[in-house]
Amino acid sequence: MSLQIIQYPHPTLRHVSKPLKRVDAELREWIAQMFELMYEHEGVGLAANQVDLPYRIFVCNPSGDPDQKDAECVFINPVILKGSGQAEREEGCLSIPDIRAPVVRKEKISVQAYNLAGEEISGEIDDFFARIVQHEVDHLDGRLFIDRLSPTQLADISGELEEFEIDFRSKRDVGEMPSDEQIAARIAELEQLRT
Ligand code: ZN
Questions:
Q1: Model confidence, pTM
Q2: What are the angstrom distances between the C-alpha of 120 and each of 87, 116, 142?
Q3: Per-domain residue ranges for the chain?
């Protein structure tokens, strides 16, 4: 199966991912594809539900540089334990391309997760890396960065969001997009396999 990035308002972006119980060869292949898609679209992070998979996983590379393999991370079942401070910075999202807005996040967070080798990774991170992790964990909880904007900020981009909604509906109309029921059935099937 070849993965693709889904866009707002695809319902899987609102799916709350359940913790993953096993990592098999197929999932490893999907994770490799997630890195490829992330680089292709010049992103620094990509969550599983952005490629229509219901798993609590995201990939990231804060450098955004495919040659900097050392900076690549896979977070499996990530949990943000605590956060402190506040920072505001402009964010975007590969599932809502070309829209950017300043988002307030915790400046520093403590995070715990597992890597692909099944080892626990945990520690305190800050700044841009902490922002990416918060953005991606939000995805896994079915939350988008636009949910964190003020009503005024949201009003500024409402026209652009509406275009995404119109585009989504027209794909449905021509049969290029499955129904909500079909999407939910596929998600449930994939969940049953690994969560
Ligand atoms: Zn995003």
A1: 0.97
A2: 27, 10, 24
A3: 11-194
